[in-house]
Model the fold of this input.
Amino acid sequence: MLQFVLDQLQAPDAFLAQVRTLYASPERESFDVLRFKDGRVFERYSRPQRARFAIIGRVWSFRDVTERERGPLSSIHLAAQTLQRTDVPRAERQSMLDLITREDRRLARFVEDLVEITNIRTDRLRFEDADVDLSEIVREIASRLAPDRARSRSTLSIEAPAPVVGHWDRFRLEEVVDNLVSNALKFGLGNPIEVSVDAHDGRARLNVADRGIGVSPTQRAAIFRPFGRAVSARNHAGLDLGLFIVETIVTRYGGTVEVESRKGGGSCFIVQLPQARAA
Amino acid sequence: MTGRNHTVLLVDDDPDIREIVTLVLRLNNLSVVTASDGVEALELLRGAPEIGLVLLDLMMPRMDGGELLRALKGDPMLAATPVVVMSGNRNAAAMATKLGADACLSKPIEIDDLTGIVTRFATAETT
Done:
């Protein structure tokens, strides 16, 4: 079985080294992106299989994500070739330009996720902390996500009446907010989304609530795993790392992320972050 | 030579692919209907005899491309409808043959390949 996979991989030695490391460290959770010789791209996730307190084996999951890369590439490729024709009517021309812009963002997300997963896996996620205002970040991300909001048909209301300043890495906080709001737009079924920011006792709190498909209790653990996803999402961008990245960043600051949700009744993600510099 | 254009059924779960391929085919004066998975595609095929070609993505939720091909080949009314598979796999041609498809388009799709293949299958000469 292992030999069958190794024969098809572009970098079999690196994968074999990982397998050896994992079998030497049964308690480790591990994830990766694998490229096959035939062009396919797979997410790979592996965790120990436990029975009560004992580890009795290892669970391996693979998912083909080739289309997340080839889909946007195909759209851009076709649109760019068609735009070279001189007889494309104005409306169609504009549709194609809009599509190229959207697909460019999907591809960028895919590449960013590839970089991010390598950084997290090798413990090289960089943090350059300074005083930043979470309320301002929320407003900026909301503005940046305006095209996604328009496509989702959800309205987005923000309640952030006062600055909530903490000692954080601005880019990482943007990732937290972007992933949570993007998630709400993706699974919010076009219903209103509410975001609020406040602070109590030295802890900032960010709530992102939607009225979408919700998450059942059995799905809660899975959505925070790398490549975790409760349902199939069409036109997906990136590698399903969103909530895993959120939890990785929030935990790094000694904070928490929780989800309150009922299947069919929407979700509310609650992030709490200490505002002060970590000791 | 005169030709009669059949309707093309495009089956892909990616709405952006559906949008761009539809735009391209309509600019080439072809009529297009779309479905986002195999279940929708089967419903359309059973209700629309004018469909003369299926452009089929392989990876889709509910009913994927391989399952739809099997359903088509098992239905005497639809078994003769030509199917062109669209895939990002470098072995797409071999896969298409194995699945019983008539041809394949590799993603990223070249516009000449798309228009060429659609012209070949969806334009029937009138007598």
